[in-house]
Design brief:
With about 400 residues, this protein is an alpha/beta fold. Helix content is about 30%, strand content about 25%. The chain folds into two domains: about 220 residues, Alanine racemase (TIM Barrel); about 120 residues, Lyase, Ornithine Decarboxylase, Chain A, domain 1 (Beta Barrel). Strands 1, 11, 12, 13, 14, 15, 16, 17 and 18 form a nine-stranded mixed sheet that branches. An eight-stranded parallel barrel has the order 2-3-4-5-6-8-9-10, surrounded by five helices. Helix 8 links the parallel strand 8 and strand 9. The protein is globular, with a radius of gyration of 23 Å.
Length: about 400
């Protein structure tokens, strides 16, 4: 998208504003699909938690995607968007048995990641096919908060607990139709991914009725110019060859599944914010904008990098700014960042704002959440209205107190 398109949308829909480029989502989807074109059966299940707007889900459904969900609400969103239950996989963590049974009743593929729930579910529902999430004990990911396959992770059943797992399956007579792993996000070294895949292949040989192997995702995308990223083409070439060989060994053509979220939508997203104040202190020039970590928490939560451009003055002289929000505590998007000269009223654009940005937004400081716009076929389409104050108080129940002061 061009700066003038974004400025036009900021003018039309107000700010702060999330904008998503449909063409970039499509490009990323087909890039991953082409990387694994040598695999007979490929399934791409979009990770809903990355960006759960129903219009985004419908766009991905149009391309043939399935869904990866982690809550009953994400399952419901998927069904509302038109996905068939059998094209949805549900991989919760630490949820109640009641929620898992509610999802199973919808016909969605269940993926269980702990022995206690596996035993309970198998004893009650031995005829419902279940996928098992394995923890391969492989450390991968760009931040400790998004590395989920290591030995201290709360996710998955330890590969070292395989004898116990097999005993539960034998005792309950349950049907295991899939094996799953996810090591973490921002994977840089595909050899680490391939090493974890070997662990999954070995585990899979313990089960005779498998239909698919799910390798999760975590592919790294570039966050700035010349940034490193996961080479999905090389991964596709190497993993496809190994997967096809495994299928021959297993004696059956299985489905190879992935669950990309960030890979599909991160680079498609732009977050637009207006500069309220330029503040010079004794050591820093602050650009204070009309938003905060209530709308974009990733820099404060993960230390993530979002490239920031002044699209109101793209050819201006570069100066150094610390870009900060309006939340009443430390609320920093970027420190001492080189940006084209900023004036009050300028619009700043945050790149890579498609994944885990709006979906993690909140009403902290009693602020409303932004609108969302999908740029599709050369036009901006409003896909979520900006919240209002009435939205914030809608579910509050106001008590009626007496006017007299309370004495203690």
């Amino acid at each position: 998208m061009e700066a003038n398109n974004l400025l036009q949308l900021a003018e039309e829909f107000g700010g702060p504003l999330y904008v998503y480029d449909a063409a970039k989502i499509q490009t990323q989807y087909y890039r991953l699909e082409n990387a694994f074109s040598k695999v007979k059966n490929l399934r791409i299940n979009y990770a809903v938690k990355a960006l759960s707007n129903i219009s985004i889900l419908k766009l991905l459904k149009q391309m043939g995607s399935g869904l990866d969900t982690v809550s009953i609400q994400e399952v419901q969103l998927g069904i509302m968007a038109g996905f068939k239950p059998e094209s949805i996989i549900y991989t919760p963590n630490g949820v109640s048995m009641e929620e898992i049974e509610e999802v199973a009743a919808l016909g969605v593929q269940i993926n269980i990641d702990n022995l206690s729930i596996l035993e309970q579910f198998g004893a009650k529902h031995p005829n419902i096919p279940v996928c098992i999430r394995i923890n391969p004990h492989v450390m991968a990911g760009g931040n400790s908060n998004i590395s989920v396959g290591h030995i201290d992770s709360k996710f998955g059943i330890s590969i070292h607990q395989m004898p116990h797992l097999l005993r539960i399956v034998e005792n309950t007579g349950m049907n295991i139709n899939g094996i799953h792993m996810h090591t973490g996000s921002d994977i840089l070294d595909i050899e680490v991914f391939l090493y974890a895949a070997e662990i999954l292949f070995t585990a899979a040989l313990n089960f005779k009725n498998l239909e698919f192997l799910d390798f999760g995702s975590g592919f790294k995308v570039p966050y700035k110019k010349d940034d490193i990223q996961t080479n999905v083409e090389e991964l596709g070439k190497k993993l496809s060859k190994r997967f096809n060989a495994f299928c021959q060994e297993y004696g059956k053509d299985l489905t190879l599944a992935f669950e990309p979220g960030k890979f599909l939508v991160s680079e498609a997203g732009y977050f637009l914010a207006k500069v309220n104040v330029v503040k010079q202190t004794t050591s820093t020039v602050f650009a204070g904008i009309d938003t905060g970590f209530n709308h974009l928490i990733r820099p404060m939560f993960y230390g993530s990098h979002h490239h920031i451009e002044n699209i109101s003055n793209p050819k201006g002289k570069d100066r150094f700014y610390s870009v900060v929000g309006y939340i009443c505590e430390t609320d920093t998007f970027a420190s001492n960042r080189k940006i084209a000269e900023i004036k009050e009223g300028d619009v700043l654009c945050f790149r890579n704002s498609g994944a885990y940005c709006f979906s993690m937004a909140s009403n902290y400081n009693s602020r409303v959440r932004p609108a969302e716009v999908l740029w599709y076929e050369g036009k901006g389409h409003l896909i979520r209205k900006r919240e209002t104050f009435e939205d914030i108080i809608r579910n509050q129940v106001v008590m009626d107190f007496k006017d007299e002061p309370i004495t203690v």
